[in-house]
Amino acid sequence: METPDQFRELFRMQRALNQRIGVNTDTMSEEEKTKWVLNYSRAMTQELAELTDSVAWKWWAKYQKFDEQNARVEVVDLFHFLISTAQVLGMSADDVFQAYIKKNEVNFQRQDSGYTSKDAEDSKHI
Fold it and tell me: Is the CATH number of domain 6-113 1.10.287.1080?
């Protein structure tokens, strides 16, 4: 049995979940896209806060423990909303992968050059 492309499968599953709850990213107007990018960004902000709360970040509180299991769940929650955001923007799994490769190259070039100044032009091709 052939193993499915896991990244593409995540995108397929997220599209199915979004459609089940009444969010069709394929037919959104610009106004709807704006609304949903904001909705998903806010949701990711909350999930990131929940991830932060999984870590004993309060140095003054001795009762805290690192909750690795919850941290893993929050990372997955972030993926749900991040994939949804990509889909609102019309990005497929392949689009995200190709953009990631290009941005990763830019990041390595920045490190190679010492990244001593911000160059907004170096990411325009992505």
Answer: yes
pLDDT in tens, 46-81: 999 999 999 998 889 888 899 999 999 999 999 999
Specify whether the CB–CB gap between 78 and 51 falls below 8 A: yes
- Cα(39)–Cα(50) distance, rounded to whole angstroms? 17
What is the C-alpha to C-alpha distance for residues 78 and 84, in angstroms, rounded to an integer? 10
pTM above 0.85, yes or no: yes
Q: Where are the alpha helices (DSSP H) in 62-117?
A: 68-88, 93-112
Pick from 47, 56, 124, 44: nearest CA to 88: 44
Q: How far from chain centre, in Å, is Cα 49?
A: 14
